[in-house]
Fold this sequence. Notes:
Blueprint: H1 2-32, H2 40-52, H3 58-61, H4 69-77, H5 83-105, H6 114-136, H7 139-156, H8 160-173, H9 191-212, H10 231-234, H11 246-265, H12 270-280, H13 289-304, H14 311-320, H15 331-337, H16 340-347, H17 349-369
Amino acid sequence: xxxxxxxxxxxxxxxxxxxxxxxxxxxxxxxxxxxxxxxxxxxxxxxxxxxxxxxxxxxxxxxxxxxxxxxxxxxxxxxxxxxxxxxxxxxxxxxxxxxxxxxxxxxxxxxxxxxxxxxxxxxxxxxxxxxxxxxxxxxxxxxxxxxxxxxxxxxxxxxxxxxxxxxxxxxxxxxxxxxxxxxxxxxxxxxxxxxxxxxxxxxxxxxxxxxxxxxxxxxxxxxxxxxxxxxxxxxxxxxxxxxxxxxxxxxxxxxxxxxxxxxxxxxxxxxxxxxxxxxxxxxxxxxxxxxxxxxxxxxxxxxxxxxxxxxxxxxxxxxxxxxxxxxxxxxxxxxxxxxxxxxxxxxxxxxxxxxxxxxxxxxxxxxxxxxxxxxxxxxxxxxxxxxxxxx
Length: 391
């Protein structure tokens, strides 16, 4: 009986740990809820166009939809429900994904101070995640990051088919997820099979749209405005709209940089480098970018360092935290009606862009120069055959 009682007692700290994480998530959901789902209408409109309007001409006729068909199909699956119920269900599910993704990383974290490190990482991540999942309700970015973590777990278990399929689903949700493909290089076997599965999944997803209307490729040069606070503007791009080469540069340089990261330092920094390059080359500076950036930073902090406090994640959240700017669509009006930090943000758009580009440069350098963990962590893996990550 004493032995049987010892097991529940050992489980108590774990139960308390996840209960606090759940309560923290609920608290932030409550904070964000009154001004939530700012971008959910894009998913609804895109789903309606796909099923009842443009069909396979969708991305040719509506290139401003910077998303993937999978996110629209998920939104379409909710369409039989009343609109408000469908929206709220999606917001709750996307928000719940945050702590679940942290839990999915748990087996990959080195045993030393594991629970403490994961708990602190969750406390730092959740506010940023709810900006993405709830305040904005950006379904495509949430799905891309969810499938990226699924792919990471599949790689850790040496399951190439699942890894390739998960990455294909990520790219089907958001095209910039192509930057996560270098994760497959870590597989000790089955890399070709995984690559074929990923390529086949991407082809099955996107080829029907391209074959139905070649103008679909025009989405690589979408009518998206170039913001003064964006990385592209900081790097010298000028004009009203994103340059014709802007999106193509993201889709090429993001996986290229991630490939260098995985060859030099293994798995932990792949997601972070990919997201950093994407944001540095983005024509916008949207507040929801914080969610993907913070989760990628959490992966690096937990799997690539021994820090108790996830400094990369904390710095990312601080630098990208800008929900206070919501509700202002006219910058001249905002400059006349705001004060304090909000006024500074609107008055110094170029400085904001420079700060975010500097963040991208710093985290990329950090990933490339940070020594690999010596223990049984994921970061010890290279592209050479070796032990499983879960061992």
